[in-house]
Amino acid sequence: MTARSRHEDHRASTPLELFFDLCFVVAVAQAGARLVHALAEGHVGAGLAGYAAVFFAIWWAWMNFSWFASAYDTDDALYRVVTLIQITGVLILAAGVPRAFDDGDFTIGVIGYIVMRLALTSQWLRAAYSCRDPAERRVCRVERSGALLGQRAHTDGGRPAHSHLQEHDQPSRIRHGAHS
Fold first, then answer.
1. Cα–Cα distance between 69 and 79 in angstroms, integer?
2. In this structure, are residues 108 and 99 in contact, taking their beta carbons and an 8 Å threshold?
3. Fewest beta carbons less than 10 Å away: which of 29, 65, 88, 165?
4. Which residues in the chain show pLDDT less than 70?
5. How far is Cα 115 from Cα 166, in angstroms, rounded to an integer?
6. For the purposes of burial, counting CB atoms within 10 Å of the CB of 39, is it exposed (0-12), middle (13-18) or buried (19 or more)?
7. Which of 144, 111, 108 is closest to 129 using CA atoms?
8. Could you count the other beta carbons within 10 Å of the beta carbon of residue 82?
């Protein structure tokens, strides 16, 4: 795996990257739909807090992958398989959005986030292994470490770090899924 040329003017997204982006759209749409329900029920604070927590996880994972894909433009079989694993993590995260909003249970979303982050960490390790330039290798290792530390900060022993949003803080109609 080699880094893209820094002098390349333009690079078009691959179909796999576009599919990856579309899966993130599904996750954001899930969060947006739950936010609309919360606002319609008058639960502005809980709706905004839930949306912010979920959206940040989605955006952070997307931004990290996009940065990596822009820096290391490889399209070999291993890269594609690991990207498909990351897509699986995105879809797991998206599947966990309703439970996160309705019950304050971020478990499924955290599992999806972990799948994404571990796959991305493996990409950074692969890039670091193939780097000949010591400075570039160091950047890859720092990014890998950042991905792992970010994962640790986002979870606390398997529980989401934002699980401080206790059930009593969530409106009962959102908590129990009674959306109209």
1. 10
2. yes
3. 29
4. 1, 5-6, 73, 131-180
5. 25
6. middle
7. 144
8. 16
Q: Which SS3 state, helix, strand or coil, does residue 21 take?
A: helix
b/e string for 132-169 if b means 16 or more Cβ within 10 A?
eeeebeebbeebbeebeebbeebbeeeebebbebeeee
Read off the tokens for 162: 């934002």
Please report where in the chains the tokens 């880094």 appear, as a residue: 3
DSSP conformational letter for 7? T
For 36, the token pair is: 């609309």
pTM for the structure as a whole: 0.72
Q: Which residue shows structure tokens 């070999």? A: 76
Residues sharing a CB contact under 8 Å with residue 113, sequence separation 6 or more, in sequence order: 57, 61, 89, 93, 151, 154, 155
Q: Which amino acid is at 179?
A: H
* Cα gap 28→176, rounded to integer Å: 21
Read off the pLDDT of residues 90-129 as tens digits, 9 standing for 90 and up. Answer: 999 999 999 988 888 989 999 999 999 999 999 888 888 7
List of residues 6+ apart from 126 with CB closer than 8 A: 1, 78
Q: How far is CA 142 from CA 16, 109, 111, 127, in A?
A: 26, 25, 23, 12
- The residue among 177, 166, 146 whose CA lies nearest residue 106 is 166
